[in-house]
Amino acid sequence: MKLVILFGASAVGKTTVGQVLAKITDLKLFHSHMGIEPVIEIFGRRDIPTEDKIRIVSHDKEIPFENYIKIDNTHLQPEKVADIIKNTFSFM
Questions:
Q1: So what's the pLDDT on residue 49?
Q2: 55 near 32, Cβ under 8 Å?
Q3: d(CA 73, CA 54)
Q4: Burial class of 85 by CB neighbour count within 10 A (0 to 12, 13 to 18, 19+)
Q5: Phi and psi (nearest 5°) for 35?
Q6: What pTM, to 2 d.p., does this model score?
Q7: Domains of the chain by residue range
Q8: For 9-34, what is each residue's pLDDT tens digit?
Q9: I want to staple 82 with a disulfide (CB 3.0 to 4.6 A). Which of 20, 73, 74, 75 is the partner?
């Protein structure tokens, strides 16, 4: 089984990139909204306070795994980001 985890700040395009990646590979998409939205429907939304010490973005070379890449998608289309992921990890 292949597992790709896209993580980053809110509203940066993780789900959009995941949707494109699923279209151009044989990967399936399970995004957080599939699990979160039913829970919110039942229990309601709760804001969880965060502390200033929590950081979502990794620094360059901070995560030492060979199967990890950091992509700044600020000026990239989702299709380009998905293509980078597909080619880096040789997904079909």
A1: 64
A2: no
A3: 21
A4: buried
A5: -100, -35
A6: 0.70
A7: 14-88
A8: 788 899 999 999 999 999 999 887 77
A9: 20
Side-chain-facing half-sphere of 10: CA atoms under 13 Å: 1
At 25, list the tokens. 């590979």
How far is Cα 40 from Cα 32, in angstroms, rounded to an integer? Answer: 12
Tokens of 70: 């950091």
Q: What is the mean pLDDT of residues 60-66?
A: 82
Six-digit token string for 19: 């949707």
d(CA 40, CA 72): 30
DSSP codes, 18-85: HHHHHHHSS-----HHHHHHHHHHHH---PPP--TT---SPPTT-S--TT------TTS-HHHHHHHH
Q: How far is residue 5 from each of residues 8, 44, 48, 82, 85, measured CA to CA in Å?
A: 10, 26, 22, 12, 11
